[in-house]
Amino acid sequence: CVAIDFSSPADPVVERVDYDFTKSGHVLCIVDTGSSHGDLTDDYAAVTREMGAVSAYFGKKFLRDVPEQRFRAAIPALRKECGDRAILRSMHFYSDDRRAAQEAEALKAGDFDRFLSLVNASGKSSSLHLQNTWSIADPKQQAVPLALAVAEELLDGTGAVRVHGGGFAGTIQAFVPEDRLSLFKSGMEAL
Fold this sequence. Notes:
The protein is of the alpha+beta class. It has helices at residues 41-57, 68-73, 75-82, 84-108, 112-130, 143-155, 181-190; strands at residues 2-5, 13-16, 26-32, 160-164, 171-177. The longest helix is centred in the middle third of the chain and has 25 residues, at 84-108.
């Protein structure tokens, strides 16, 4: 696998991470939730627009150019200027940026349990902070949160699960222990 640092988008740093997933005792499952990405343009655009508003508050184009300490100190003013969701989404950006590096380090160190914990934390942050698991335009359609909830039940405290890709619809990813794979597959297919 690889770790990619996009701090310079024109010249990203790509680092190979040597980890043999076949020895982890887990299988990566990508689950199609049966939901559609149609009519989600506004949802995706809102993420960029809201985090862009936070960046603009500091006179920057991108949030990566705003030191997290400055962002944290400005939260009371940002609530008035940009709204709570923009702040939560920005919080996700900072924490998930750190987590991505920690995931790579965990794999380099051969600490798969730590990696799984970080994947779960990232997924929780996506749901609670980034808020990209369902669209407020269609609250009846919550296929991703439903799939995540069922996957968590099937994993029963093992493995890891999170939204996959840009979210709002589409797929989830799960790292499923090999001994739970049959149960997981049948449970997700039944859903």
